[in-house]
Amino acid sequence: MTISCAVFVDGVRQGENGIDLCGLSEGFGFPGLPVTLEKMPLFLNLELDEADRGKPCRLEFHLLSPSGHALDSPNWLDFTLPTDQDTVTAKLLPTLDLTFHTFGTHTLEIRREDTLLQRLRLTITQQGLR
Questions:
Q1: Are 96 and 43 in contact (CB under 8 A)?
Q2: Which of 15, 36, 57, 63 is 20 to 30 A removed from 9 (C-alpha atoms)?
Q3: How does DSSP assign 18-77, residue by residue?
Q4: Which one-letter DSSP state was computed for residue 106?
Q5: Cα–Cα distance between 122 and 118 in angstroms, integer?
Q6: pLDDT in tens, 59-116
Q7: Contact between residue 98 and residue 65 where contact means Cβ atoms under 8 Å apart
Q8: pLDDT of 35
Q9: Model confidence at 130: pLDDT above 60
């Protein structure tokens, strides 16, 4: 199994030609920290291997600070991969609770067991009060 697409989104809608990803995000501004983004949606498209079909799976989501240190406990998602032989991909929309303690570019690592599948960047900037 590999991840062919992983992006932070506001939502996913069924469009005429497939799915539409809404509100792609690469960063946020806040006046102060710490801040928790509750139920942050993440779209994942998984490319399935024959050996993965029908098996239980756990993905872990580890948030790293700009200096590379792990923040909080990881989020995880447990699910069973599809068994249909015609299905070569699986689309997931997990929601994560992410807490940021510093400004800068953070990394979200997506892992399966001890294997790193994907890294995403999310920049947290300081936004002035108005």
A1: no
A2: 57
A3: EEEEES-BSEEEESSS-EEEEEEEEEEEEEPPGGGTT-EEEEEEEEE-TTS-EEEEEEEE
A4: E
A5: 13
A6: 999 999 999 999 888 999 999 988 877 778 889 999 999 999 999 999 999 999 989 9
A7: no
A8: 95
A9: no
